[in-house]
Structures are given as structure tokens and as C-alpha cells.
Queue: 2 jobs
Job 1
Amino acid sequence: MAKNLLIVESPAKAKTIEKYLGEDFEVKSSYGHIRDLEKDDMGIDVNANYAPRYIVPEDKQKVVKELKALAKKAGEVWLATDEDREGEAISWHLCEVLGLDPVKTKRIVFHEITKPAIQNAVQNPRTVDMNLVDAQQARRILDRIVGFEISPVLWRKMSMKNSLSAGRVQSVAVRLIAEREREINAFTAASSFKVEAVFSAQDINNKNVSFKAEGSRQKNAADAEAFLQSCVGANYTVNDIQVKPAKKSPAAPFTTSTLQQEASRKLGYGVSKTMVLAQKLYESGNITYMRTDSVSLSDTALNDIHSNIGKEYGNKYLQPRKYKNKNESAQEAHEAIRPTYIDNATIDDADTKRLYELIWKRTIASQMADAELEKTIAKISISTNKQELTAQGEVLKFDGFLKVYMEDKDDDDLTEEDTEGMLPPLRVDQFLSLNELKAIERFTRPSPRYTEASLVKKLEELGIGRPSTYAPTISTILKRGYVEKRDKEGVRRDYRVLVLKQDTITKVTEHENTGAEKSKLFPTDLGLVVTDFLKEYFSDIMDYGFTAKIEEEFDEIAEGKKKWTNTIDSFYKPFKKDVENTLETAERIKGERELGVDEASGKKIIARMGRYGPMVQIGDVNDEEKPRFAKLKSTQSIETINVDEAMELFKLPRNLGQFENEDVTVNIGRFGPFIAHDKKFYSLNKENDPYSITLAESIPIIKEKRQSKEERTIKIFEKEKIQVLRGPYGPYIKQGLRNYKLTKQDQERAADLTVEEAKQIIEHLKANPPKKSARRKKNS
């Protein structure tokens, strides 16, 4: 009897599922999507009600051929792709390619890869849900239209390499980052003075301990000094004590978005890494489906969690809870991300262990008791004025869920009150001994730049994108060069401190490092310029509300409430007019900013976008004398660079002096900063600044790189500009910028190759280029 063929998306998933099905089933993988839209003419027939034209890409033809052969021999074909819209679409494409009837073909879904879940799914098959397929098609087609229509407009209107693109969600994400950057650039820090007193009192062991109290902020240094002056000779007495019970509740179980945010905060993972590891955990049967915006847990899972908490921590730690989604249209999967087997607190796999443990702790904590606190607020009177100081402290009475897990906060959620200390026992009318009273200058801060995770949080708040889109959106804007993820060094800032101690006021100036940031998203000048252009000419595409409304329409399509072609049609007609108008009327994108005038020549200094990126220019192309150009540093921007910083860039090339009777110069080229010596070029390392490097620092670099090159060089044919070099995979030939791989036999005799043999090898490889190995990838 012929076996049933069950098709899933990934080989890892196939391997796991095959263990749970008997000999009646053969489980194979489609390796993600097997069809995509044609590249020619958008792959959409606009005049035929937006009919998509799908093709099987070259790298999927072998997979499709194999699946067709297996399907012919199979007793019955079952489809078990992921349970979201993307998975539903893959099942439909498989029906189309394998000649299956989607109305009759058995389609099974599950949100965890466990034996009971798989067996239950097989016993309760359904058919392909065309509403979900249509929702996915609508998103794919709309995104293709936006990309294919706007990208050529950008190529025509901007003097850049033709790698520019626009996207319905990616362009809005870049706008968020660009607006935050401009908000930061426009921000002016305002100072005020924080009043902080340090008192001494006896603890329960009759030992003197110190604790802090705070007063009202003072607007400026004069007010701060006047306040301290008014406290000279004062007595300090506890005026009032309030002891209030407080509690902290655990966070809901993970959704895709909250997992990405917390993995970033606690583990330092980027959004893409989190999703890769989560997919691995899901496919190996360790967690439920990782693309979900639901916070609910199944009754079976809740029973297992409650049992585990009672067994491991005791029933006083158990507090059953049911979480509900704020977003009523929460779709994709129908359960939060949780471990499939609650009794497994950890796993052996080194790659995914930390992420798994984070998911396990969050899941367990969500069903645990509140943490119980006792919050004490003491009001302290000052005998010489009417102001009061406030001391706050809290005591943890019962740890509850904190025994397992505490959610972290983003930069913009943190407050000074987040770190409250302990207070010694105090009583009303108690006299307190003042150690010192300070007024410390503090500055307001701008909103922090986005991290990958906080950007996901913002997109989710605005209703833009869905669980499956966050990671690819961020990957795209980074890959396109519209956004960079990097660190920013802090700058030294002085601040004033006034101290009252033993009735004497002293003033000191201290300093702090401020503005340092790690792994934050910065818009590039290219991202800023493109954002401005799109906002001016494609306001709907860049509008947050409009983008969120389209997401809601996709949800309505998925629920069968709306036809997908109507959504596309209502979008396309006005959009096409915008494209045509922009091509006709829009000026070329210059991204220029005039900085001032060069004192030496009297010519204008301009910061602008050039063909290879942001640059500064002295003079005009129409001038008799050619303009001078200099590339901006990676940390500089057209929007913020000033005249002095621009002129500093024109100090290159710098002549550092002579080494071995030859000039040593430093400059920046298309591929970065380099040293030139004796007609040879040596790239500078990241830690070397071309504007400050000295001759003494450059000589070791020349020697080291020269030696490295000599060790790498086997043979040089100067006249033909051919080199035989050693590489990590053995000897190879280089001519100009191109490399040519040698056979194993030729590698063994590389030192004996003649120039004629080298030329023959090059000609042969030019005529017969090696085939690139087809990379299997999932199109999303």
C-alpha cells in the first residue's frame, strides 16, 4: 500500500514530525515558498483584476520536481505548513504546482510539534483556507506594487547607484527612525538642580546607617544656593510616615513582539537572531509556534504550568491567570509562545538554551502569585523653612513570581524611582542627623534612539506590520543602507554641585560621560533624504495611520469580510497617479545643505549626497576650477556637520613624512582610509584615524601588511598584472580585481606555474565560469 505524503516547510520540522507518525507517512519539506511573483512587469496583470503571475524560481525547481514524483506515487498528499497566512499560502501554492484540489486536499495545522498535537491534527484535517491565502496574496502584491513603482522613481530622481528601493512597511519604519534622530538633533538640554540629603539613623541592630531623601527640584543655581542657604543651622525631624502595601504582577506570556523585545534587553539578541533561534526551538519540538500576537495559553498548558508551580515552589506561589489580547483582531497562531513540555526547565542545545530558558521563565512566572511589597514614605521637616524632604524605601515581603523572573525595561521607560533603597526604622518626631545636603545639576534628556526591539514595539503600537513582518522589515532597512546599527561614544559634560555640610556651602564642578549608546539604530543620510522625498510625494505610503489601516484590511480579508482585489484596486489607482505626477514634476533629489564659505577661495561649502554617499564640496561644477570633494566620516551627517568639521575633512591627503626615502601619505578612498607608500596601498584598521595618525604609528602598519602580503604572494607576473597568491582555501590566481580558483592539481604546483599557464587557466574559467550553488531560502 502506498504511503501518504505529508509536506511541511522545513527539513528540521519534517525530521521531528516523522518521529510521531507511523510508517503510513513519508514527511518531506518544501524548503519554504516554492513559487514567487515573476520579476518582469511586476509579475501582476493590473488590467486583469491584478492577477498574479507566479513562477517556480530556479533554486526551487529541483525540490518541486522531487515533490511531484513523490506525490504521484503517494496514496494521499497531506499539507502541514505553518498555521499563519504565509503557511496557508505555501499550502495553496503546493496544490497549484502538484495538481491537487485545494477543496479536497487534507490540510492540517498545529501550534506545537508534539506527538499528541500531531496525532490530533491528523485526526481533524481541514482544507486550505482561501481567505488566509487571499490575505497573504494581497500583502505580497501590494508590497510588490509599491516596490516596483517607487524604486524606479528614486533611481530617476537621485544621483545614486541603482540600489535604491522603497517598501510599504520598510519606508515607514525608516521614517520613525529619521524623525527620532531629528528630534534628538533639535533637542536642547535644560538643567535644573536635584536636591538630595543624606541622613544617619540607627537600624534594628543599633548601628548607624545612612539613607537618602529628596527635596523639590530647584530651577537654577541661584535658587539652589538660596535653598541651601536657608537650611544652614536647621534641625531635621520626621514629620509623617506612611507605610503602604504594594504589589507587582507578572507580565503576560510572550508574543512574537514581546519575545523580540525581551531577548534584546536580557540577552542582547537582534530581532533576526531571536527569530532564527525561536524557529529552531519550534521545529525541534521545544516551544509552540513562534509567530503569534496572542497572549492566551491553552487549558492543557495551564494545567501543566499550575502543577509544575505547585510541585516546584508550593501552592502559595500559584495564582492562575487568563490573559486577553488588547488587539481583538489578534490572528496568526492562537496561543502565546511557551515551552511544549513545561517540566523541561532547560534544554541541552547550546545555541538555543538561553532563549528557551527565557521563554520557560516568562511562561511559569505568568501563572505565579504577585510579589508583595511594603512601601514606606517618610516626610522630613526642615526647621528653618517650610519645605519638606521625602525618603522612600520598599521591603519585599513575599517574592512571588520574582522568584523566577522579572521583566526588563527599555531606556525610555526607566525613571529615577526605579531604584528605591531600604530605610532604617523611623518614627514620627524622630530627630535626624544630617550628613550633607546637595543640589546636583541635572539635565533633561531627549528620547533615546530606537533599538531593534523598541522599534518593533513602536511598530506594533501603531498597528503597522504583523508578527511575521518585523524581522524582515528591520533586516531590509539595514541591508539597503537606510539605517545603521552602531554604538555612539559619550561626550564629557561638566555639571555643578552645591554641598551644604557642617553649615558651610561649597561649590564644585564635576563631570560625567553622557550620550553613550550601544546597538542603536541611526538613519543614514541616504535614509533621511529618501524619507523626505517619499513624505513629500507619497504622503499616503508614509502615513502611519494609512499603513495601519491597510493592515486592518488584510485582517478583514483573512476573516472573509473583504475581497482582496478591492483593497488592491482602491490603493492602486490613486497611487499610480502619484507615481506619474512625481516622475513629471518632482525635482532631482539633491539632499544639499549650504554650510558657509571657504575663507581661502571665497567659494561655497556644501554638504550633499554624492554617487557613493554623503560628502562635502567646495566650489561648483560650473566653476572654471574644478570643485574639491571630501567624504564624510561614518559618524557624521549632512544635517549636523558644521563648517569647521567640513574643513577638517579637506586636510586629506596628509603627508606624514618619509620612510625608506619615500613619502608616506594617508587618504580616504572608495573602500575606506589607507596609507600610500612607494606606489603601494595599505588599508588602515578601524582604530586608526587618518586625520591624526602619525608617521611613527604608520610605519609598523606598512611593515606588518607588507610582510603579510609577501607571505601571501607566491608569484607575480608584473606585465600581465597576474598574481599567484595563497588564500585560506589554498593557492589561487588574481588578475586585477578578479580571483580565479585553481584545481587541486594546479594548487600543488602553484609555485611552478608559467605566465602562459596562468593565462590559459584564466581564459578557461572566463569561458566556463563555475556554477554558483543554489541557496535554498524561504521567501517571505
Job 2
Amino acid sequence: MTIFLFVAGLCLLIIGAEALVRGASRLATVIGISPLVIGLTVVAFGTSSPELAVSIKSALSGQASIALGNVIGSNIFNVLFILGLSALIVPLNVSQQLVRLDVPLMIGLSILVLIFSLDGNLSRTEGVIWVTGLAFYLWLLINQSRRENIEIKEEYAKEFGSYDGGGWIRNIGFVLCGLGLLVLGSRWLVDSAVSFAKYLGVSELVVGLTVVAAGTSLPEVVTSIIAAIRGERDIAVGNVVGSNIFNIMGVLGLASVVAPSGIDVSSAVIGLDIPVMIAAAMACLPIFFTGGVISRLEGVALLGYYVTYTLYLVLAASRHDALPRFSAVMLYFVIPLTVLTLMIVVVQETRRRNKGSPT
């Protein structure tokens, strides 16, 4: 029954997110909002609605660790798994707006999570700060979209601007139905995740970081992969970055506000999981910077890091004998080698651009 509720909850979340995005995007088109803004806001944030539903339900039910693990795990999953898999299918182009604004913002917000967590609690005041920041970010996006080039606008119009209006009642129905499915699906998913944690003898945080995070990120998986296959590569990348920003400011912010005493943050999360989220966000900047393309090789590297992180969580949860050796290899070999490689690539790209620029 627990497995059935978990799978059913995931299905309801995916269907609910799809209905919400479809209804909201069509209503936005009727109102006159540009397809680019719809793609950057309604779709990117709509695909994060499962994380929002699960995190708020968890916070209200006293399982705030699931809410925290869901956001951190989803952000790690989005960058390492979804971007990695999408780039493996087809190399992804990266717009300059992402390099100039969105990725630095994602990095800054990830670091802010660490700063806010140092006292062991994410308070309601900090949640209000994030939600206020989200409102300002939306305003900034709408203004920024007016200056995007024609090619990007046409790409988003092709994906989101084909609706010819009408059907207000039907699309409002889509939105309401989607919200209802998200609420019911989140309840089933959270309840079954708590049962899983008790049965397996692991913490609710670990379940939130892995199973729940991957499950609630399925809408982002589908959206980004389909966009990559169709050649809509700005949408594939923008969806991931936009969702990560919303996860922190919207999902974690609202969860911190509604949780009775904020969200407690353990020393283990501060020492490992949040730094991994920051590292994943920071890895985007040099990768996005070099040539404006996420190559297949870089996609393989991102996927490899996600597998490594998940393996570490499994070894730590099971207290496996191989954990000390595994940690030593990661700390003293893999991570330094990766940092050195990224630095070399950035230096080479900088020199290439300087040679190509007029004197």
C-alpha cells in the first residue's frame, strides 16, 4: 500500500503540474503576456509546483526535514541529472541572459541558504525575505524579456504561443484541477515517504534528498528533455535554472514561513548537502561561460557527479565500510581535479576570446 500511494502520488503530481502549466500558460496568452515571459515564469515555476506542494505539506505536518531535503535534492538533481541528460541527448546552447543574471543569482541564492542555515534554523523572517526577492525577480524577468533578441522570442513563441484564445472556463478548470491534484498527490507522497524512511531505517532527510527530490523533479525532466529534442535549447536550460531559483525563493521561502517554528537544519546538511548544491550551481558558470554551449562531455561529467553524490548518500545511510575510502577519493582526488579542469578551461576560453577581440 505504501508503494502504491507513493507511485500514485507521483502520478498525481505530474498530471497536476501538466494541467496547471497548460491552463496557466493559455490564460497568460489570452491576457497578452508574451510567450518568452510565459516560458521563463509560468512554465519554469509551474514545473516546480510539485516541490512546492510537497514542501508546504511537509512543513505543515511537522516533517520539515523532507521539505528541506526536497528543495536541496531537487536543485542538485536539476543541474547534475537533468542538464547532464539533456546535454547528452544534444549539446545545449546557453543564452547570455543566463550567464549574466540567472546563473549568478542561482549561485548567490544557494550561498544564502548556507548563510541562513548556520544558526541551525531557517526562520519565518528569512522565508519572507526569499518570497519578497521572488516578487522582485519576476518583475526583473518581465522587464528583461522586452530586450531579448528576435531568435529567442520566436523560439518561445513556437513552444508557448500557438494558442488562439478563448476557453476561459476550461483553462481556469485546468488550473483548479491541477492545484487539486497537486494537493492530493503531495499528501500521498509525503505520507508514503515517511513510511519508507521508517521501514528502511534512514532519516526523512535522506528520503527527501533522493526519492522525493527525483520524483518531484519529473516535470522538469520531461520539459527539458522534450525541449532539447525539439531544438528549443534555451527553454531546456532556462527551465532548469528558473526552477532552481523558484525552489529556493518560492518553495523554501514559503515552507519556512508556514512551518510552525521554521525549518531546523542539521549539521550534516550544512556540512555536505548545501555545499554540494552550491558546487553544482557554481559548476554551471564556467560550463555556461565557455563557448555558450553545454557539450556532451560536460553532460557526462554532470551525470557522473550526480551518481557519485547519490552513492555517497546510500553508503552513509547504510554505514557501509567503503564510506571512508570513498570520501577520501572524492575529497583528495576527484573534486580538486574537477576544479583544476574547470579553471584551465575558463583560462583557455578567456585567452581565445581576447585573441579574437579587436585591439
